[in-house]
């Protein structure tokens, strides 16, 4: 009823050993021994496979940590906070003749250089995250699919075991009182076997429930990382280039002939759009970090129920 034949190590046998086994076949287990093995070890092979997959997921799902993304977003946000538009505000012709704006323009250029440095660092972190995702996506999806296959097999075992338990209990209840000592012993053995199967099914059900929850949360974590990378990539393709163009134009204008009010307002608008995008990306990165920590605890917690059912 429950097949764990894939756990056999025939692939490790030499031809001579296989021939020896054929020449001396193993005796078939007695029905009682087979039922005892069934009640205590049903689904063990699938559980051991899930233990292996748990270790794989632990490594795969924690590759490409996003804390650097959150830090890079914060660093760029802080650099933007230092931008002082009063340094390039429109000035009168007397101030321009006196050269009072040169120092202010240089300070604004230095601020913009720090912004560019922080922005380029964020670009690098996002590209790294995307590359790591591309490498690990296939492996994660395959591992999660393997988990799902094992879980489906365990669900079938639970269904079959529950039916078998119900049938056996019905048979025990239908048995007439036995005065014969052998019949009484058989009744006690069958009752104990039912108790063993109850315990076994409980262990399998606990392990399967925990593994199913991890499977769902693992897929959610992958989706969250992909969404974070997409959001950062959009900001770096849209708001970041817009700010760089406006800020560079403003600095050049200030150095050449003085800024116009329109130029300053356009740069302010670009900075505000970039700041909003960074706040959203930073919040999303922190949310992914919280999700990752919860997933790490869940991966660690899955060891106990699987080990108990192995």
Strand and helix map with partners:
Layout: H1 15-23, H2 31-41, H3 44-60, H4 67-81, H5 93-98, H6 101-174, H7 181-237, H8 239-256, H9 261-309
Helix pairs in contact: 2-7, 3-6, 3-9, 4-6, 4-9, 6-7, 6-8, 7-9, 8-9
Quick rundown:
The chain has 310 residues and is mainly α.
Description:
It is a single chain. With 310 residues, the chain is mainly α. The chain has helices at residues 15-23, 31-41, 44-60, 67-81, 93-98, 101-174, 181-237, 239-256, 261-309. Helix 3 runs antiparallel to helix 9 (261-309) and helix 4 runs antiparallel to helix 9 (261-309). The protein contains 9 helices and no strands.
User: How would you classify the helix and strand content by structural class?
Assistant: mainly alpha
Distance between termini?
18 Å
Contiguous low-pLDDT stretches (5 residues minimum) are 1-18, 92-98
Largest sheet: none
Sum up the structure in keywords.
single chain; 310 residues; rod-shaped; 83% helix; disordered N terminus; mainly alpha
